[in-house]
Amino acid sequence: MKALCTLPAAALVLGALARPFTPEDLVESTRLGHPVISPDGTSVAFVQTRYSIEKKRQFSQLVVQALGNHLQIDSPAMVVDFSKDARPNPPSSASATPESEDAASKHRLEPSQPVWLSSEELGFVATDAKTHQSTVYSVHNTGKHWSKPRAVFTAPVPISSVQYNAVSNTLVFIASVYNGTTTLDETAELDVADQERDDTAQVFDELWVRHWDSFVTPKLPQIHAVQLRSHSSNTKPKHKPKNIIKDSDVDGRLEAADSFVISPNGQHVVFVAKRPGRDYAWRTTSYVYVADIDGSSASPINDNGRGASSSPVFSSDGSRIAYVQMASPTYEADRNQIHIYSVEDKTTIDVATNWDRSPSDLLWADDNTLLAAYNEYGRNKLAKIDIASGTVTPVVEEHSVGSMQHVPHSNELLISYSALDSPTDLYKVSIDDGSIKRVTQVNPQLGSSVFLSAPEDVKFEGAGGSSIHGFLLRPPNFDASQTYPLAYVIHGGPQGSFTDAWSTRWNLNIFAAAGFVTVALDFEGSTGYGQNFTDAIRNQWGGKPFESLMKSLDQLLDSHPYIDRNRLTALGASYGGYQINWINAHSTAFKALVNHDGMFSTVSTYYSTDELYFPETEFEGVPFDEQARQNYEKWSPERNVHKWKTPTLVIHSEKDYRLVVSEGLSTFTALRRQGVPARFVYFPDENHWVLKPANSLRWHREVLGWITQWTHKDTIGESQSQKFVVQGEHLN
Question: Could you tell me which residues come within 8 angstroms of residue 360 by beta carbon, excluding any fewer than 6 positions away?
Fold first, then answer.
């Protein structure tokens, strides 16, 4: 398949009309929500969002795009348009208000979760910010325009992951409810009672206490179904919603909000859940369940499985269920193995058992073939898998495939698709030959007028002769006769990968555009190079990955003389932040470091993190076991802070419960107490990721300002004062 070509040739050379890519460009870029295809396969609906720095507003638009076969991209039809003040504490007068009474029905609703009720009727969810009630609205295509929204169903609590089955005329969704309640109204009443309590105490007897960025509550996300009554244009619920899993042995803590699928006949739902138990925080085991749509039963199909399950999907006739599951009950980065379950005879077969990759999302291409997304050598690829033989045939091998779904009445898929130098858009791809056709262009402003650096594959020899792959991006107006500073970016996970994909966080083109040769490598622990390579980081956190990074750096500098050895910086988040702290004690190669939400102490992290199975696997035990304690101590950055000398920017957020804020504060304290130049940037309202647009802009300004300050030619070795300039604005 040909490489992704989205930018005109004029953008490949920075000229008078092509300017460098800026943090403002990234923050104000339009972002695609999850697309849904109409039943007749002619249209796709999605919510797109964008942020205005000048107006300080977030814009959300529900649009419908034609899935034509012609070369020209149709302009999308705007169905619902909404905006709101995006400031943390906006004035009450700045809340979302309609521009006029006539426009109120379309401008007062914040659209989310589009769902087709027919090929001419589109539903979407809007949740009231004050009452927290969710309403499913519908709009009709009259042929000339879309009608005003009409309420179809209102839930007294927020709902998510809405799906619809036309055969049974049923809406299925997730709502968080209190255990023992029988209706959503009961949960809403208990919510009110909870808000009216005299005290604010939260009491826990078991783990988890909190997960990712929220404290665990008594409420459980569980699947509900409601049948609609359809006559003429008046679709209304036939009965009240029913919780279809409350009487099963699962607690409803689904692994993903969209992890359920309705059977083709509308009579069953397949979903993933963990069983309740005191080992919740230190075991990954989860099961694939099949529930009757009427709530009469819910039972697992892989009761003998041990690891985490995901991506269940029905075959076209509903007779089989494909899914993936890991073997280890404590390892979240184990290889996913494909299984197919027969609904009738309750037997399971394994597929492509010798394939040393870890497939994620699955689809059925036909009765004999599966489609799987997988990561390989820095690309998120798509392949066909013959069920009988296990033969894997690539369909899309370049750049990165995101979401995927079958286009009805065709042999095509609709995929989200991107590259390091091309923002995410929707494309159609042929299952037969991999040919690709563009469907959307949601960021036309990032065309010929903005320069985006094309990534170059690089390969080095790492620890023990391992092969280390990565990407290199050059600055705008690159001249090999000149020298440039280096941004050496280290990914998190650690079981992750720097892929040829667009990202709104740690976008490599941002660093390149700021004048840095930018390099990101996949070291031991990275995914996409076989399971042995992924496993190689276990009990080696400061060992093989560090050795590979430093050996690769030496080879990089030897083979790329335009990189200035005296102006090197290293940046990393999560495990990358851990590695920054490790580098600070074991290398003097870098002029400046950036640690985002990194680890200071392996021991303190164990006792404060949410998912205990992670450190217990990585360090081969618990820190209160004498032998395992030695592993924790060996790889703890805290043991080597007396060696820290390199100026470091430390960033951490309050709602990061994976690596808690004290890890960042401890890092900053150790630096400043020893007189090492440092800066601490704290976000009280972000989690492990900085997601809010204005916070993201501040993050980029702080990071680019820091690495520019310590690598500017005129101030090397002197009092540092140079700051990164963002569109004419000097940072203070």
Answer: 310, 311, 324, 336, 372, 373, 374, 375
Neighbour-count burial of 624, counting CB atoms closer than 10 A to its CB (0-12 exposed, 13-18 middle, 19+ buried): exposed
The string of DSSP codes covering 596-617 is ES--S-HHHHHHH-S-THHHHH
Confidence of residue 97 (pLDDT cuts 50, 70, 90): very low
Residue 155, phi-psi category: left (phi > 0), alpha (psi -120 to 50), beta (remainder): beta
163 strand-pairing partners: 172
* The pLDDT of residue 256 is above 60: no
State how far Cα 341 lies from the chain centre.
28
Tokens 């034609």, located at residue: 66
Render 54-99 in DSSP notation, one character per residue: TTTEEEEEEEEEE--SSSSPPPPEEEEEEEEE-SSS--GGGS---S
Q: How far apart are CA 160 and CA 258, in angstroms?
A: 8
Confidence of residue 396 (pLDDT cuts 50, 70, 90): very high
**φ, ψ at 148 (rounded to 5°):** -70, 150
Give φ, ψ of 568 to 5 degrees: -105, 135
Query: What residues are annotated to the active site?
Result: 574, 656, 688
Nearest to residue 600, comparing CAs of 637, 545, 652, 650?
637
**Contact indicator for 612, 619 with CB cutoff of 8 Å:** no
Token pair listed for 214: 């929220």
- Predicted local distance difference test score (pLDDT) of residue 74: 74
Angle made by CA atoms 269, 270, 272, in degrees to the nearest 5: 135
What six digits make up the tokens of 292?
Answer: 């009757």
CA dihedral 403, 404, 405, 410 (to 10 degrees): 150
> What is the distance in angstroms between the CA of the first residue and the CA of the last residue of the chain?
48
* DSSP string over 435-481: -EEE---S-TTSSTTEE-PPPEEEEEE-GGG-EEEEEEEPPTT--TT
Pair of tokens at residue 644:
């820290």
pLDDT tier at 229 (50, 70, 90 boundaries)? confident
Position 724 scores a pLDDT of 55
pLDDT at 8: 34
What is the mean pLDDT of the segment spanning 450-474?
98
Residue 382 CB coordination number (10 Å): 25
Threshold 0.85, pTM exceeds: yes
Query: Average pLDDT of the chain?
Result: 91
